[in-house]
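TASK: fixed-backbone design
INPUT:
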């Protein structure tokens, strides 16, 4: 660090390295920085002189960062992110506990943990604006590293370096199978005897699941295989939770969803609340589905702003975790 600074490394060089990594073209990187392409070329030449190696090589119509360029870009992204966080923190300190906090979460924990924390935050932190990004772990991981979200309730994303994250594991996330009220499965003879419905009797129906490769879908197919059952023959693949609900409420399809979500949108088969307007109902079956461990994730080595720390603590309190 000292050597590079003495050689003249500036924030503008870091911004260029970051932009080149994101855009893959010098012209696009210049546009992102709000400078002309010749100015970007001069910055690149200066950076190459400072680090003593080429930043990139030509690749088709774009560029490809060299190993040295990638190393600089990775560090540049982290440094720029810390500067951005410092700006937010200074603003919050000047204006009292206020500002914007963005939370990322997979669907189940968003309903089970984030929503209760939001209710607390509206009272305890009235001047803090909170945003929630709900998505898959593979979507949320890069957003966390990029500084678009402050922390997340998710799993380690595939293909990412685990050391880039700090994670407090909560445990596995149970899944439930759901279908519409009055679905034929609820007239199964086992229901009158309060006995789980055999999974093989459910495989004849259409299933609605996320796309191939998604964690939830892999969990279901692996759990079935461990019990010696094939995957459902007819699967509607979608990443839209609203489409899942619409499909199972209007057809005889079955869907696996997080149990915490199922309990928010359904009534159990032994409930006395059949006529409350719930669209779907939990199926009691003889196979247990659990998604791999998830937890509370932050960027390794980062410091949250005061507002983000306060929201995080509300979330931790609701989950029952000790203070961080």
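OUTPUT:
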């Amino acid at each position: 660090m000292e050597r590079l600074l003495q050689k003249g490394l500036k924030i503008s060089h870091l911004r260029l390295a970051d932009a080149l990594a994101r855009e893959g073209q010098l012209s696009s990187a210049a546009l992102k920085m709000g400078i002309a392409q010749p100015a970007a070329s001069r910055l690149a030449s200066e950076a190459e002189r400072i680090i003593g190696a080429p930043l990139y090589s030509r690749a088709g119509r774009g560029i490809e960062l060299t190993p040295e360029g990638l190393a600089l870009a990775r560090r540049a992204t982290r440094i720029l992110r810390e500067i951005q966080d410092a700006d937010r923190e200074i603003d919050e300190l000047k204006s009292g506990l206020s500002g914007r906090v963005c939370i990322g979460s997979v669907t189940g924990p968003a309903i089970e943990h984030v929503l209760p924390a939001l209710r607390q935050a509206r009272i305890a932190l009235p001047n803090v604006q909170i945003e929630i990004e709900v998505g898959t772990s593979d979507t949320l991981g890069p957003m966390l590293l990029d500084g678009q979200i402050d922390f997340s309730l998710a799993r380690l994303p595939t293909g990412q370096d685990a050391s880039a994250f700090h994670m407090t594991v909560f445990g596995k996330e149970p899944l439930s199978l759901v279908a519409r009220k009055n679905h034929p499965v609820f007239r199964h003879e086992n229901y009158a005897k309060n006995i789980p419905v055999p999974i093989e009797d459910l495989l004849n129906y259409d299933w609605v699941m996320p796309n191939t490769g998604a964690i939830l879908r892999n969990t279901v197919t692996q759990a079935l295989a461990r019990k010696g059952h094939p995957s459902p023959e007819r699967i509607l693949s979608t990443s839209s939770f609203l489409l899942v609900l619409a499909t199972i409420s209007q057809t005889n399809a079955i869907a696996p969803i997080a149990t915490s979500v199922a309990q928010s949108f359904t009534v159990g088969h032994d409930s006395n609340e059949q006529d409350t307007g719930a669209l779907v109902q939990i199926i009691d079956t003889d196979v247990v589905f659990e998604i791999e461990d998830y937890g509370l994730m932050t960027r390794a080595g980062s410091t949250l702003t005061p507002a983000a720390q306060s929201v995080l603590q509300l979330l931790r309190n609701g989950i029952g975790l000790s203070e961080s």
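COMMENT: Residues 67-95 form the longest helix (29 residues).
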